[in-house]
Amino acid sequence: MKTPLSFLTILATVTTFSSANAADTTVEMLNKRDDGAKMVYSEDITRIDVGDTVTWVPTSKGHNVEFIAGPDGFDAPKKSKNSKEVSISFDEPGIYYYWCTPHKSMGMIALVVVGDDTSNIEDIAKAKAVGKSKKKLATLLSQL
Questions:
Q1: Which single residue of 1, 66, 75, 113 could bond 79 by disulfide (Cβ 3.0 to 4.6 Å)?
Q2: pTM score
Q3: Closest CA to 109 of 46, 59, 44
Q4: What percent of the chain has pLDDT over 90?
Q5: Which domains does the chain have, with CATH numbers?
Q6: H/E element holding 87?
Q7: Which residues fall within 8 angstroms of residue 83, CB to CB, at 6 or more apart?
Q8: Which residues fall within 8 angstroms of residue 33, CB to CB, at 6 or more apart?
């Protein structure tokens, strides 16, 4: 009887520890960043651990989050509504590429890197990009 009880105690401890370590990161949707960049997210590359949550907060009207690509098997959430806060938890390691639908051609794109896993970088590099987003995506990927 000690073995099953010990196993359950360890399992409960590990589960509690894992969920207690999950973190929240906030990314703002901006018309202008302190560095002068316009129509941007506050972070171009957000690095998080598996199980963490990113919350996008609009600081002005007209921005959203739409995922374009992610790791194999990634089921992209629906694009968020304009000017609405959205939170997404990431359970699969890899690179996730997203943009602001109305401002994608102006270069309002960004990446989430989960678990320092960049194994899908070639797939992200082949993903759709328009206008200024093409050059910015290449620049962001070169920084990984």
A1: 66
A2: 0.85
A3: 44
A4: 83
A5: 22-142 (2.60.40.420)
A6: strand 86-89
A7: 58, 60, 61, 62, 63, 64
A8: 40, 42
